């Protein structure tokens, strides 16, 4: 709940909904929020699939494996913007809900097995590894995230992949920032006859 609590504190006019599967983490976040007397944060212990309320921005820090893809899918279905920091690329795998690669362009280039190998290499960014190996890992992270970007763009999203600074803040320091397509409003009182 670190990010949710910071957002609630920094943006007092916004309502923050913190969704967490683990009870222990949720209780800790509730305690911290109470200590800070935050009134603009709600807590929900659930899997993201059970969250059905409307929202405008989805935020996830270190969303492990397919958790990133779950957040992106949920935001796209809701027409919400997103800021997601992917993590644990090596845990990305085909599941009932997701198949990889996600984008048509990557599907034309990589098999599912080759995509899984790319994901395993994307996890090779630990500081104790040689710099050239970390660089390969960073490039592989970028490719996995590019596949995600292209998949989101098919829904009209504008997406950027950014690197958190300083890069040492996390070995997995990419961020996917997406803006939904602009909606055009119907002119008030306009009726086609």
TrEMBL record:
Q: Which Gene3D superfamilies does this one have?
A: Vaccinia Virus protein VP39
Domain of life the protein comes from: Eukaryota
Matching entries from Pfam families are given as: Methyltransf_32
Q: Where is the Methyltransferase domain?
A: 7-93
Chain positions covered by the region annotation Disordered = 170-193
What is the protein's given name?
Methyltransferase domain-containing protein
């Amino acid at each position: 709940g670190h990010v949710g609590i910071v957002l609630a504190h920094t943006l007092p006019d916004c309502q923050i909904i913190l969704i967490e599967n683990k009870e222990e983490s949720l209780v800790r976040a509730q305690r911290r929020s109470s200590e800070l007397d935050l009134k603009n944060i709600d807590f929900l212990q659930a899997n993201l699939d059970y969250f059905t309320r409307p929202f405008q921005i989805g935020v996830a820090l270190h969303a492990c494996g397919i958790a990133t893809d779950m957040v992106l899918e949920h935001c796209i279905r809701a027409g919400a913007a997103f800021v997601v920091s992917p993590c644990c690329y090596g845990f990305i795998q085909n599941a009932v809900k997701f198949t990889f690669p996600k984008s048509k362009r990557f599907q034309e280039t990589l098999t599912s097995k080759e995509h899984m190998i790319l994901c395993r290499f994307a996890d090779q960014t630990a500081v104790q590894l040689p710099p050239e190996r970390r660089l390969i890992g960073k490039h592989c992270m970028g490719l996995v995230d590019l596949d995600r970007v292209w998949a989101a763009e098919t829904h009209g999203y504008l997406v950027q992949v950014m690197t958190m600074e300083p890069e040492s803040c996390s070995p997995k320091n990419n961020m996917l920032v997406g803006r939904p397509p602009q909606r055009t409003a119907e002119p008030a009182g306009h009726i086609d006859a």
